[in-house]
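User: Sequence in, structure out. Go.
Assistant: Echoing your sequence, followed by the structure tokens.
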Amino acid sequence: MRRPDPALVVLLAGISAALHVGKLPPALPVLRETLHVSLVQAGFLLSAVQVAGMLLGVAIGAAADSIGPRRTMVMGLAILCVASLLGGFASTPGGLLALRAAEGMGFLLTTLPGPGLIRRLVAPERLSRTLGLWGAYMPLGTGAALLFGPAFIAWIGWPGWWWLLGLLSLAMAVVLWLSVPAQGDRRNSVARGGPGVRSRIVRTLRSRGPWLASLAFAVYSAQWLAVIGFLPTIYAQAGFPLASAAFATALAAAINLVGNIASGRLLQRGWRPTALLQCGYAAMIVGAIVAFAGWGDGGAAVAITRYAGVLLFSAVGGLVPGTLFSLAVRVAPDESTVSTTVGWMQQCSALGQFAGPPLAGWVAARAGGWQATCWVTGAFALAGMGVATAMARFLAGPGRRAPAAARGSP
């Protein structure tokens, strides 16, 4: 029997981890009834999965460089499996909250080593395209959970939904362990005779490149989640049927993969990464203005146009994460700090996701509606364009490494 493409298995593992991030929103109405979850507790449940990323991203990334990316991903999938299976038995909001935090740890362990492991599995000429695909794991996973979650919860209940995704993570752990060559861990291991975890963290945080990539990721994720996260609320306030709102939100999240995939192909064709970042941020500004600015008096045509703005915001904005994952292997101080650099990117991304939605909600409350959302997202996007300009100067500096596709085998 032919072994599946190891890089594809790594991507599927990332998608299976992202399912756990997106599984909660469809279950919140049921959880509020069965576990008596308050709105405040619901907010903490939504953000708890980001706590590990905010506090431990760079440390877990450095540890993954020592343990080995394959072993680390299997460990993360196992934690997701156990936490999700136990979560289905939770009878109190506090118990479910603790298990959501554990799922956040499993999510980090599963996703942080992905780019470094892919770099060791694919030929140099495929690297940019494959890393662009990797950048789509989050919209694919969250979009699938948002789309299919309501149907599964109606069929097997929210505990069954938790158990199903836990078993899926277990299956992915087995497939990844059997399909990805063990040499990937040995080639990436720096624990013997190499720099330790603390040394890699210090080198990463003292380097300008990881900071620029991480800031670019933070301002992107802050505005993306601020828009996608509030879409169900916006559509509910507008009187959309529940099924239509779920589909519209899932499509808006999943279409983000278009930009992720396109980034890899465009980088492979010679586009400058910073030009792709500028295009992504510019599209997010235009899309948010179309979607939220106070124009039109309603009606089907206006609603369709506004939704087209949301799709533009998410689809072309996907150029940003796809490009940044490709840049991570270039801006890392050396080969032993790729996962550490990705960890710092994820940590700043989690901070952005934690801060962006509350800020957008506060502005909407002060403005008396969602029309001011474009000012929040626009500020983040303009900051991202400034970071992209600084990144262009950094990459053009003396002694910078060539793009990964132009280098020799990893």
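User: And one key feature?
Assistant: The chain has one domain: 6-401.
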